[in-house]
Structures
1.
Amino acid sequence: MAGLDLGPITTLVEGLILLDVVRFTSPAGGPPVFNPDTGQYEVPEGAVLYEGPGAVQPGSTSAVANIPVPNQPWVDETASNYRAYTPLSAPLAVRDTIVTVVQVHAGGDVSLIGRQWRANDPSQGGTLGVIRVTSLDQIQQTGGGA
């Protein structure tokens, strides 16, 4: 019995979705550093694991995971639901991989350049996948960043 050939579908989906350039790096550790070019605080990056076609999009919901607890201070950090999309040829991201948008397509949202997210879990996979999906949480700005 012949298997399903997803090659043409993969090519179509990659051409429609993977329009930007994303970088996956291992976390280097240390506090965020202000980047005057982007005006944002950025988490120091370690070794580059992948840099190439990809996309970062909000997840199906933008849930805030903070629940106030009586007699406890309000937590500043919220959970953001985002997804990174990369080709199946990209390596699997591991938990805490840093994802940065490096370049956006013509007409894309240039405010995404330099923004960073952290992988919540290893990249998802499946036997019928056509692109790789990685769950992300946006790295919140500190120190007065936007």
2.
Amino acid sequence: MKTQIKQVTAATLIVLIFMAVGIKANASTTKLTNSNNTETTLQLEDWMIDETIWNASEEAIFVSETDAALEVENWMTNHRIWHAHHHFQFDTELTLEMESWMTDEAIWTVNNVMAEEELTVEDWMTDSKIWK
């Protein structure tokens, strides 16, 4: 445990030393190079200082909307709807059957189809005068 703590401490120290040596900051590199950014002056508008806007009650400015009242309807509590035994009609697939073409040897025999001719290297392919 002691050795592990010492190793972590040593590694941290080495990393900090490398970071300190690697940073080369001086006054010329830390100056702001583009300091031409100026903000425009703020302009007061009439509505910003209008007493009637700021002293008005919230009800006059904001309309509060309410959700429609929720009601329990008959179908929601109908026992027959929620506990009915629905009889669904499921699709059934036909059984698979072997057909004659599936077992026909002539269909599944692979015939050697015409093979391509072997490529040959011709003189013009290796002629250095052509490829300069």
